[in-house]
Amino acid sequence: MPYAVNTMPRPRSLTPDQLAAAALAVIDREGLSGLSMRAVAVELGISTMALYRYVQDRGELEALVVELVLGSVDSTPPPLTAGPWRARITLLVDRMRDTVAAHPAVLPLTMSHRHRSPGVLRWGETVLGVLGEAGFGPEERIIALRALLAYVIGAIQQEHLGALSGAGTAAIAELPAEEFPYMTEAALGARSLTPDREFHGGLALLLDGLGR
């Protein structure tokens, strides 16, 4: 009697990049709140239990996503020929903005996973180096780095989730001017403000506040 042939397919072996890409696809489609082990398993075409072979929980998926997105940020120290420290910091901030602009929903994860993401750590190391060369002390460097991270995260989220060209600005412009004179004036003027001017204008104000 011939042996029975096992026709059951072998379980797939998935790489960290494949897991991260599936989780990122869920976030891009459903937002950060839609990320779950089950949703990623469905995206991969496997069972939820099978996904647990690769990651322990949603937190590990988040860390993989952060590294997939931010791991490609260019953290090479800008040369001195790029200009004074402000110009070099602006270049580093622009690199991060350009890289993560396609996935703004991921940005809140950078704060909770910054200590585990080599991409975030490399970027932070380069920023701290530039600040150190500019004469910032240890405590000043910490404050400046966190302020820059907070600005980048908040500004990109506003640009993509609450743009000045959106319905919110139009609604504010229609408020009664006698009750909200400054808000209505700002909303009317905001219509001509491009995302680049808004982003770099805010960054310039932050860098002015850092001094030097």
UniProtKB/TrEMBL annotation:
Q: Which InterPro entries match?
A: Homeodomain-like_sf, HTH-type_TetR-like_transc_reg, HTH_TetR, Repressor_TetR_C, Tet_transcr_reg_TetR, Tet_transcr_reg_TetR-rel_C_sf
Its domain of life reads Bacteria
State the DNA-binding region(s): 36-55
Give the record's keywords alphabetically. DNA-binding, Repressor, Transcription, Transcription regulation
Q: Name one Pfam family in it.
A: TetR_N
The answer to keyword NAD applying to this record is no
Sequence ranges assigned to domain HTH tetR-type in this UniProt record: 13-73
Q: Which Gene3D superfamilies match?
A: Homeodomain-like (1.10.10.60), Tetracycline Repressor, domain 2 (1.10.357.10)
PANTHER family associated with the record: HTH-TYPE TRANSCRIPTIONAL REGULATOR RUTR (PTHR30055), TRANSCRIPTIONAL REGULATORY PROTEIN (PTHR30055:SF151)
Q: What is this protein called?
A: TetR family transcriptional regulator
Source organism (scientific name): Streptomyces nojiriensis
